[in-house]
Amino acid sequence: MKCHNCLRSIVCSVVLSLTALVASAVPADSLRYVNAMDYRMINYAFDKTLEARLPVLLQDSLRASIWPLAQCTAGKGFRFATDSRTIGVRYNLLTNMHMMHMADTGIKGTDLYVWDETHRQWRFVTSSRPVRKDTPVRPREDSIQNKVYVQHLDGKMHEYMIYLPLYDGVRWIEIGVDSSATITQPQLNSPRRDQCIVFYGTSVTQGGCASRTGMVATSILQRQLDVEVVNLGFSGEGRMDYCIARAMAGIPDVAAFVIDPLGNNTVPMVDTLTVNFINILRHARPEVPIIMVEGEMFTYAHYNQESGATLRKKNSLWRNKYEQLLAENPNNLYYVTCEGLTGPDTEGTVDGDHLTDLGFWWYARKMYPILDAILKHQPVPQP
């Protein structure tokens, strides 16, 4: 009986503490909201817009299945500075979708980062935990997310960064600050504006299945390399469409193209599409290095003989195409094998192929020295 009373006392204490915490929280509706589009958008390739990651003029040239994926805001973010003691966010989701194998915080949440002056690096603060209303039809008002990220800050001016949803889009987004606070354009040039890296690929490139939006490999590398990294991953649709290659070739200030599409391509597609896709970029932008990344060896492919044989065949053919392209022109072409791409063991995925945060961290770790050398104009290490 004494143990039960102790347990009841502990539970009551926790409940009362949580109730007090909620009661003292700053309500999201009490903040002053500003249009995030008035501040610096990062990691986008074409127009500064929330509408799509590809040019709107390209829509009619694309396969119909690509455009909805282009409307996902994967990799995009905003930079600003404020002295507000409370920071919140309010945004309207495009679909408010849900998937069984990926956290909603990654699909349609937003991450807040702050610049740590002491350690000179970006630090994660918290994520907005999105709400999904289980209704057969979700009108636009049901998709509005209104969250307080953090409160009781020190009231000093700090630099912040927000990452947008990976597998959903947003119609509009606003940043919430105290009514008397100052919010300005960022003063810190991070990530640097002068060059960018462009990733093209599949669902993994897009961010499946990061637990939150800042943990996709492109955003990890953006913070580590301190340059903008454009995410052109299209779930299930990274099939080396030539019109996308032509659009990519027109992106200004590109330091490198990273091409990682094999997960969405059949063996015949790898055989017939690879050389032309790469050459569209090479001929238009001969000065820009291109990195061809082998397809991930799915964990189950080590045991499923049919899957394993197919993946090895695609990688072998990809390597042959790389050597063919290298023989045509040895300049600015690099190759990354799948060995260790998602970690030294089989713990880097959520379902055997889509990555966890751990898998994305290993992916970024393998790509970092190559991209760092390119940015510094140093000899590129070949893994």
Average pLDDT confidence is: 92
Fourth-level CATH superfamily of the largest domain: SGNH hydrolase
Number of helices: 9
**Rough outline:** globular
Percent in helix:
25-40%
Estimate the strand proportion.
15-25%
Count of all domains: 2
Word description of this protein:
- There is one protein chain.
- This protein is α/β, with parallel strands linked by helices and 383 residues long.
- The chain folds into two domains: 29-184, Sandwich (Jelly Rolls); 192-375, 3-Layer(aba) Sandwich (Rossmann fold), CATH 3.40.50.1110.
- It is 30% helix and 23% strand.
- It has nine helices and 15 strands.
- It has helices at 2-24, 67-70, 104-107, 203-206, 217-225, 242-249, 267-284, 305-328, 357-375, and strands at residues 32-35, 40-42, 77-82, 87-93, 110-116, 121-128, 144-150, 158-163, 170-177, 183-184, 192-201, 227-233, 254-260, 290-293, 333-336.
- Strands 2, 3, 5, 6, 8 and 10 form a six-stranded antiparallel beta sheet that branches.
Describe the structure concisely for a colleague.
The protein has helices spanning 2-24, 67-70, 104-107, 203-206, 217-225, 242-249, 267-284, 305-328, 357-375, and strands at residues 32-35, 40-42, 77-82, 87-93, 110-116, 121-128, 144-150, 158-163, 170-177, 183-184, 192-201, 227-233, 254-260, 290-293, 333-336. It is α/β, with parallel strands linked by helices.
